[in-house]
Design brief:
Number of helices: 3
Distance between the termini: 8 Å
Mean pLDDT: 82
Number of domains: 2
Shape: elongated
Radius of gyration: 25 Å
CATH class of the largest domain: Mainly Beta
CATH topology of the largest domain: Ferric Hydroxamate Uptake Protein, Chain A, domain 1
Helix content: under 10%
Number of strands: 23
Strand content: 35-45%
């Protein structure tokens, strides 16, 4: 079997805010409450939000109850700055926002005799206490570092609550091949989408092959989907990278040929009850389906055209997989 396909993803960010139509599916949120040292709410606190994935700075003020909120945030790392007259300025950094994630950041401001600033770095991990979904968010770092065949089906196989149907990937043996799966015993009625665009076929399959290197995050929900997902099956939510104010890029190459394969059939024998020794191949035990040739080239880059106003991002992938079919002459 020979499979060759090309992947191309091109994303241009043309406004200072995410697309509102898909904001509930491909973004996250930050909210919280600001109080003084006695626990009383502080209204009118200026709260500024910055991130490499944001165009410019977002600013809001706390309500009479001391609450604030930032919605429709692209996945990434954020920093918050809290400023109020008569209080020390507080800066909270290293806040990670993931797809479908709500980070609640409650802070206490200290009274300041003079103008002072306090920076909080690497505080306790942030948990989303507002969701009941059962799933995993694979960040860009995980997608890069996990030693997999670089496709969504291998990622599905790693997700709790999901069982793969049919062939299992061994050393990338199913790379470039769609594989069936089910969640908690239910099969079908899955809901894959990219940047909020549904890509499912009529059979609820993924629809096409993906440019894996273009993803900044992949959220896989195996159970308890939110109201935005109209099916009970697996929700596959992927988000494409964007440009930033700084130029950046990645290059990936993978190569494998038949001579690098091995199996536990060739050269092995079995002793029969009669004492005769037969090679496993002569007993009709087939050798594993070998990868004849495998190439995976993936490159992407992004940056700015106008700082904080117009960004660009492009990704290219060429994956070729020549694999032998088990039990057939190839």
């Amino acid at each position: 079997m020979t499979k060759r396909w090309w992947g191309l993803a091109l994303a241009l960010l043309l406004s200072a805010s995410p697309l509102p139509l898909f904001a509930q599916e491909i973004t996250g949120h930050i909210n919280g409450r600001v109080t003084d040292e006695k626990g009383d709410p502080i209204p009118g606190v200026k709260v500024a939000l910055t991130s490499p994935v944001l165009m410019g700075e977002r600013v809001t003020t706390t309500s009479e109850l001391g609450t604030y909120a930032f919605t429709a945030l692209p996945p990434g790392m954020y920093a918050l700055k809290f400023e109020a007259s008569g209080f020390k300025t507080l800066i909270r950094t290293d806040i990670e926002v993931r797809v479908g994630f709500t980070a609640t950041i409650n802070v206490k401001l200290e009274v300041a005799a003079i103008e002072e600033s306090v920076t909080v770095v690497g505080e306790t991990p942030i948990l989303d206490v507002s969701t009941t979904q059962v799933g995993v968010n694979y960040t860009e770092r995980l997608l890069k570092e996990l030693p997999t065949a670089r496709d969504i089906w291998v990622t599905l196989a790693m997700t709790p609550g999901i069982t793969m149907i049919g062939r299992h990937d061994v050393g990338g043996s199913t790379a470039g091949t769609q594989t069936g799966y089910r969640n908690y015993g239910a099969q079908g009625q899955n809901w894959p989408n990219i940047d909020g665009v549904i890509t499912a076929e009529g059979s609820a399959a993924a629809g096409f092959y993906y440019d894996y290197g273009a993803f900044t995050e992949m959220q896989i929900v195996a159970a308890s989907n939110s109201a935005e997902v109209p099916v009970p099956g697996t929700f596959i939510n992927t988000v494409i990278k964007t440009g930033t104010n700084e130029f950046h890029g990645d290059f990936y190459v993978d190569y494998e040929r038949e001579g690098w394969n091995s199996d536990n059939v060739k050269g092995r024998s079995y002793r029969l009850p009669t004492g005769a020794i037969l090679p496993l191949v002569d007993m009709g035990i087939p050798r594993a389906a070998k990868i004849k040739l495998y190439n995976d080239w993936n490159a992407n880059a992004g940056g700015r055209i106008i700082r904080d106003k117009l960004w660009w991002f492009a990704s290219w992938r060429d994956q070729r997989n020549h694999a032998g079919a088990l039990g057939w002459v190839s």
